[in-house]
Amino acid sequence: MDVATALDLLEQETAGLDAVVAATDDDAWALPTPSPGWTVGHQIGHLHWTDSVALLAVTDPDAFDRAAQAMRPGAVDDLAAEQAKRPRAQLLADWRRDRDGLHRALSAADPAVKLPWFGPPMRPITMTTARIMETWAHGLDVCDGLGVRKEPTPALAAVARIGYRTRAFAYTINGREVPETDVHVRLDMPDGSVLEFGEPDSPQRITGTADAFCRVVTQRRNIADVALDITGEDAAAWMDIAQAFAGGPSAGPRPGERVQPHDQ
Questions:
Q1: Among 85, 112, 190, 227, which residue's Cβ finds the most Cβ atoms within 10 Å?
Q2: Distance separating alpha carbons of residues 118 and 247, to the nearest angstrom
Q3: For residue 136, how far is the Cα from the chain centroid?
Q4: Distance of CA 202 to CAs 42, 115, 227, 233, Å?
Q5: What is the CA radius of gyration of the chain?
Q6: 3-state secondary structure at position 186
Q7: C-alpha span between 165 and 95 (Å, rounded)
Q8: Spatial distance between the Cα atoms of 210 and 186, rounded to a whole number of angstroms
C-alpha cells in the first residue's frame, strides 16, 4: 500500500464517521461511549486533536517537539474533555479543516522522511495508516455510543495489517517472550477479497472476518464476543493481549463488556 492509497482510505473512513456525527444533535454529542468517561464529543475531540498535532508534526517538526515535551500524564483524557466542551459545530468545522490539511501535507511529504511522533519517528505511510486505525477504532466507539452498527469498510485492510504487525509489540509491553512460531491470519474483507498474513503452513491460525479481527486487536471487543476461529495456544494467547495502538499495556474489555445490541 502506498501513501496515496492509504490517504484515500483515510478520507473514506473520516468522511463516513463525519456523516454519522453530522446527523446528530447536541444531546447525542453528550451520549456516553464504551470508553469510560468519554462521550461522543470526547471521541471526536480526540480525533481532532490527534489530526491537528499530526499536521504539526508534518509541517513544523520543531513546534511538534515543543508540544510533545509539554505533554503530561493524563493529558490525552484532559485534552479530549477540553475539546468536548467546545460548541459542536465549531469542533466539527475545525476537525474537517485540520484533517483536510493533514491530507494535503502527507500527500506532499517526502515518502522517505521520518516524521516526529510521541513514539518512534514515522514515515508518511506509517502515520497515515496509524490515523486510519485510530479513526476506525474511535469511530466504532462513536457508533456504539449512538447505538448504530458500524458497517465494515475498506479501511479494515489497513487496520488488520497494523494488528498483525504489532503482535511482537503486544508481547513485549506485557513482559512476555515473543513465540518463535508465526501465526497465519486469513481474513474475509467486505468486498469478498481475502487478507492473509504470516506463514501459510503455520499450525497457529486465525480465520474469520477482518471486521472481527480488527475489533479485537484495537481492544474494542473481547475475543469471546466475535466470530473468529482460533487454532493453537500461541494464536489464542496473542488474541488475549493483542494491542494495535501505542502506549503501555491495556487489558482490553472483559467478555461481554462491550457487546452491543447492534453487533448481530
A1: 190
A2: 9
A3: 5
A4: 42, 35, 21, 12
A5: 18
A6: strand
A7: 29
A8: 8
